[in-house]
Design brief:
By secondary structure, the chain is mainly α. It has helices at 2-7, 26-41, 64-76, 85-97, 108-122, 133-145, 182-201, 207-220, 224-238, 258-268, 291-301, 307-326, 331-342, 347-356, 363-378, 392-396, 413-420, 430-448, 460-500, 514-535, 543-546, 548-564, 573-590, 592-596, 600-612, 616-625, 631-642, and strands spanning 15-17, 23-25, 243-245, 288-290.
Length: 643
């Protein structure tokens, strides 16, 4: 940050020659430091504009302020109190620059740029006033970018529409590169990019001229690529720009290998059962991309794949991938096709990235992917693409790439989900879907697994073992995808609603009590594991564990009210019995700290309900773990039981 602040404020009038003969300037030093700062900040990961419940997304915390807070935190702890050698090293490094806390106000230029970056994401550009220093900088940069364009005595465009007030695009004058500090250039770049893109949309600039001008700007100050990325990303998400045809004349064409990419995507997703929308485009409707995305991908293609360009492609590449994935299908496959033509060695990565976008535009596809995860893990998959033996190997697979087994092969569903879940915007719909998939999996375990008993269906012990595996997978998905908010919603809304609803299955008639009971145990393991994952099992002081008494208390109140007869349960009585006894048994054996956080009156009501089912041992164990407050109730219960 200090290097950026100092060198970004310098006019590049002088340069230095390294021992290697390379000549560097203030712009080069700034650009390299700025690129490293953005990489630490994970700038190329667009901000997640949604959260789960009242929990902010993790990505929103990776800001310049957060980086400084991390640095300052190492100053607070004395070096002797740090047992971790790595943390001791970081503490020494932090103290070496300054022994006092540093805040973003210490870097005013960086702070101004960061505020402009956030404003660019939040709303269209405004605020460019004629005659101001920023306006003069915009004109100077536009003249530099489009100096080679000759339109007689007229300027290329007079862009007064949209969000840019820049009045000149291209002139034979001012062809010398302006000597401006890097921060001043970065402040003007969004307006420059907006003017150039608007001119292209109005036909005043050709696509080739647009991309050449942007590349000249990025060559002049490589750090401008970050602001160009920020602007294009924001404009694509606004959806106000028309789409352009990637016909090979105005814009590069993906036609050479688009059909090949489609076939590879189908092979990758073969094990999930998800239908891949066709990429085939007719003669009258060639592949199209939104104008900012078309300009963005065309700009990145102009870079050479060498060491000098790598650090800047590292910024643009992930942002391009995420941006294209968020656009309507088939934008990402088109981008993958274009870049595959540029760098064939990246083909596997690009095609895999394109394949995951199938799930970003359809909740049904996500549900089908999760269904495949359950089937693969339990060995219920009838597809020949994935091993039917089940287990973690079937869930996560053993590798991916065109060099495996002579070409692209189906990818294990678990790996696909790990690449998809961070981009699912509406995670709350998964509450009901996970429960539904778990119930269906339990039914499949009973009906489809090899028959082990004389009654013609799986033995209870063997089935229960697999039900635990299914529940652990479901809990992992809930915790991984939605975190604290999704787990809280599961306890407060989804599970009570499910138990109060009526569920019928055509296959229950000839299964005796095994299927309803296994359903109850499956939900008990799901709930217990979700709570353990998010809250922990002890009395830690984490933010999540502090919410445990309230959420768990609400759920226990629901159980007690249903046992008291105040709430009617619509599910099968065997399912309800198995859930209540199973969940409370898991609490007694595995999470006794949870029980200590419940009030005595609630525990007493639960025990009375258990005794109505003749679950006396469980009721006594529950009171025994409840602490001093429940000793009286436990004594009364022992006396009543004895006599």
């Amino acid at each position: 940050m200090t290097i950026c602040q100092v060198f970004g404020s310098c006019v590049p009038n002088i340069s230095w020659t390294l021992t290697t003969g390379e000549e560097i300037s203030a712009h080069a030093v700034f650009s390299n430091a700025f690129a490293l700062l953005l990489k630490l900040w994970r700038f190329n990961h667009p901000p997640v504009e949604y959260g789960v419940g009242d929990v902010p997304p993790v990505g929103s915390q990776l800001t310049p302020e957060y980086l400084l807070l991390v640095r300052n935190s190492h100053l607070i702890s004395s070096e002797n109190s740090l047992k971790d050698p790595n943390r001791r090293r970081l503490a020494r490094v932090a103290c070496s620059s300054s022994s006092k806390p540093i805040f973003v106000d210490s870097f005013p230029k960086l702070k101004v740029w960061y505020r402009q970056h956030l404003a660019c994401i939040a709303s269209p550009l405004t605020g460019l006033v004629n005659g101001t220093p920023v306006h003069h900088t915009v004109d100077a940069l536009l003249n530099m970018m489009f100096r080679k364009i000759n339109r007689g005595n007229q300027s290329v465009a007079n862009v007064a529409s949209g969000s840019s007030n820049s009045s000149r695009l291209g002139s034979e004058e001012g062809y010398l590169r302006p000597k401006l500090p890097a921060w001043d250039i970065l402040e003007a770049v969004p307006f420059v990019a907006d003017a150039a893109l608007t001119a292209c949309a109005h036909g005043r600039l050709s696509p080739r001229e647009l991309c050449t001008g942007l590349k000249d700007l990025a060559d002049y100050l490589p750090a401008t690529l970050a602001t160009i990325v920020s602007y294009f990303s924001a404009e694509v998400t606004r959806g106000v720009w028309k789409s352009v045809f990637m016909n090979g004349t105005d814009w590069p064409s993906p036609a050479a290998n688009l059909s090949s990419v489609e076939e590879q995507i189908k092979k990758i997703l073969a094990a999930t059962g998800v239908d891949v929308p066709s990429l085939a485009a007719g003669v009258s409707s060639p592949a199209a991309l939104p104008l900012p995305l078309a300009a963005f991908v065309s700009l990145t293609i102009t870079y050479k794949l060498d060491k000098a360009s790598q650090r800047f492609l590292d910024l643009a590449g992930p942002a391009l991938e995420t941006l294209a994935a968020g656009c309507p299908w088939p934008c990402m496959p088109i981008v993958a096709s274009l870049w595959t033509q540029k760098a064939k060695r990246w083909s596997d990565f690009l095609v895999f990235s394109a394949s995951r976008t199938v799930f970003l535009h359809s909740n049904d596809a996500v549900v089908q992917l999760l269904r495949s995860c359950f089937s693969a893990t339990l060995g219920l998959n009838t597809s020949c693409c994935i091993s039917s033996n089940g287990g973690i190997g079937a869930l996560l697979g053993h590798g991916f790439g065109s060099h495996f087994n002579g070409g692209i092969s189906p990818v294990a569903p678990g790996i696909l989900y790990l690449r998809v879940y961070r981009s699912i915007r509406d995670v709350m719909f998964l509450r009901e879907e996970i429960v539904s998939l778990l119930m269906q999996t339990v039914e499949d375990i009973v009906c489809l697994k090899p028959k082990k008993s004389k009654y013609g269906h799986a033995s209870f012990a063997a089935a229960l073992t697999e039900v635990k595996v299914a529940a652990s997978l479901g809990a992992s998905v809930v915790f991984l995808t939605g975190g604290l908010g999704l787990v809280q919603s599961l306890f407060k809304e989804t599970l009570p609603s499910w138990f109060m609803s009526i569920h019928r299955s055509e296959k229950e008639g000839n299964r005796g009590g095994i299927l309803p009971m296994l359903r109850g145990y499956a939900l008990a393991y799901l709930a217990a594991l979700c709570g353990a994952f998010i809250w922990g099992i002890d009395s830690s002081l984490s933010a999540a564990s502090k919410r445990r008494p309230k959420i768990l208390g609400c759920h226990m109140e629901f159980l007690a009210s249903a046992l008291d007869g105040k709430i009617s349960v619509g599910c099968d009585p065997a399912t309800w019995h198995a859930y209540v006894s199973g969940f409370l048994s898991l609490m007694v054996r595995c999470t006794p700290t949870w029980i200590l956080e419940l009030n005595v009156e609630l525990l007493t009501r639960l025990c009375k309900g258990l005794r109505q089912w003749n679950e006396n041992e469980l009721a006594l164990a529950l009171l025994g773990v409840g602490g001093h407050g429940t000793m009286g109730s436990a004594a009364e219960m022992i006396i009543e039981t004895e006599f």
